[in-house]
């Protein structure tokens, strides 16, 4: 049975960088929670941990009684991904977030530590109740296959192991559609799409905007509705602008017709062959 991820979550990269923005950023995340976002993506990397403090303050303000309904995702740096250091890094993240448990803990990208060591740490964290599930990020199809083979060797059942792979996937980076997305779908594994707005560029893309307007959508909304069209992708756009947070959330329930999808393909061509996974 697959673990369900919502179609949209809030990205938080670049939050926590400036003390002077703390209140506005907490307000932005709180606004997202109030309009219905149920997944927040963060990482120990972001602002050297200060981003997790912003997320923690927003979760606290939202109320502890809501904790069970929200999927909090954080990530361990590859340099910390040894068995011992992963456990320590997770505890530091939980401390900054003010939480007792992470819902999903991802390896941010591959580093020098063997997968088995990181997986052992994830198992230890799961046994201790500090994480519910784990996953990976920035893994191309062959890397993911290798990771899953190690999990199998370690006797981990598919419904207990890697939950998701968070990768760059957007209209500007359609490569995963060729092999990674089908491979993940075959395993009933949802994909988390980072940078789904192309760092904001898609929101002001003239041709996309022209297509979106008669549909009653903004370019950003069309980009997001497209990203989550299969029902097996969770897009995590980042914004600290309240109106945009609402706008983005409203997009993901919009179903696109075959004609609308064809029109999008004419602007952003689907991949015709293998493209190495793009990374931001
Ligand atoms: N795993 C990884 O290696 C990895 C890598 C990159 C990103 N991520 C995650 O994915 C999240 C999203 O990616 P991202 O932050 O790189 O890029 P993104 O979500 O594609 O774009 C964010 C930018 O778009 C702007 N924006 C958002 N909604 C908009 C709208 N409706 N209209 C116009 N502009 C809009 C934001 O501005 P304002 O904030 O000023 O509103 C911000 O500048 C990150 O925050 C992070 O959580 C993960």
Helical content class: 25-40%
Structure summary, number of beta strands: 8
What is the beta-strand fraction? 5-15%
Outline the low-pLDDT stretches: none
With strands numbered from the N-terminus, the spatial order across the biggest sheet is 1-2-3-4-5-6-7-8
Shape: globular
Q: Write down the Rg.
A: 18 Å
> Span from first to last CA?
31 Å
Biggest beta sheet attributes: 8 strands, parallel
Structural class: alpha/beta
Number of helices: 10
Name of the CATH first level: Alpha Beta
Taken together, the total number of domains comes to 1
CATH topology: TIM Barrel
Q: Which CATH architecture is right? A: Alpha-Beta Barrel
- Ions and ligands: NADP nicotinamide-adenine-dinucleotide phosphate
Order of helices and strands: EHEHEHEHEHEHEHHEHH
Report on this model:
The chain has 280 residues and is α/β, with parallel strands linked by helices. It has one domain (10-267): TIM Barrel (Alpha-Beta Barrel). Helices cover 40% and strands 12% of the residues. It has helices at residues 22-35, 50-62, 83-97, 115-127, 141-153, 180-186, 206-212, 219-227, 242-251, 258-267; strands at 10-11, 39-41, 71-76, 102-107, 131-137, 165-168, 191-194, 233-235. An eight-stranded parallel beta sheet has the order 1-2-3-4-5-6-7-8. Helix 1 (22-35) packs parallel to helix 9 (242-251) and helix 7 packs across helix 8 (219-227). It starts with 9 loop residues before the first strand and ends in a 13-residue tail after the last helix. The mean pLDDT is 97. Bound molecules: NADP nicotinamide-adenine-dinucleotide phosphate (NAP). NADP nicotinamide-adenine-dinucleotide phosphate binds next to helix 9. Residues 11-13, 41, 108, 137-138, 166, 194-200, 203, 220, 236-241, 244, 247-248, 280 line the site of NADP nicotinamide-adenine-dinucleotide phosphate (NAP).
């Amino acid at each position: 049975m697959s673990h369900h991820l919502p179609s949209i979550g809030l990205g938080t990269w670049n939050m926590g960088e400036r003390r002077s923005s703390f209140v506005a950023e907490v307000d932005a995340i709180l606004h997202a929670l109030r309009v219905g976002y149920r997944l927040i993506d963060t990482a120990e990397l972001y602002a050297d941990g200060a981003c997790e403090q912003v997320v923690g303050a927003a979760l606290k303000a939202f109320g502890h009684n809501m904790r069970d309904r929200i999927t909090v995702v954080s990530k361990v740096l590859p340099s910390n991904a040894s068995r011992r250091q992963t456990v320590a890094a997770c505890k530091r993240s939980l401390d900054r977030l003010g939480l007792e448990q992470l819902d999903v803990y991802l390896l941010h990208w591959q580093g020098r530590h063997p997968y088995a060591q990181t997986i052992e740490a994830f198992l230890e964290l799961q046994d201790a109740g500090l994480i519910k599930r784990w996953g990976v990020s920035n893994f191309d199809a062959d890397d993911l296959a290798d990771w899953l083979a190690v999990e199998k060797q370690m006797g981990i059942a598919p419904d207990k192991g890697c939950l998701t792979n968070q990768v760059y996937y957007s209209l500007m980076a359609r490569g995963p559609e060729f092999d990674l997305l089908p491979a993940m779908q075959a395993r009933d594994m949802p994909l988390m799409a980072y940078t789904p707005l192309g760092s904001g560029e898609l929101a002001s893309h003239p041709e996309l905007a022209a297509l979106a307007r008669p549909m009653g959508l903004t370019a950003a909304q069309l980009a997001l509705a497209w990203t989550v069209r299969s029902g097996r992708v969770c897009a995590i756009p980042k914004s600290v602008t309240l109106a945009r947070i609402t706008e983005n959330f409203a997009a993901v329930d919009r179903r696109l017709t075959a004609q609308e999808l064809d029109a999008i393909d004419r602007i952003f061509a689907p991949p015709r062959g293998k493209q190495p996974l793009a990374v931001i």
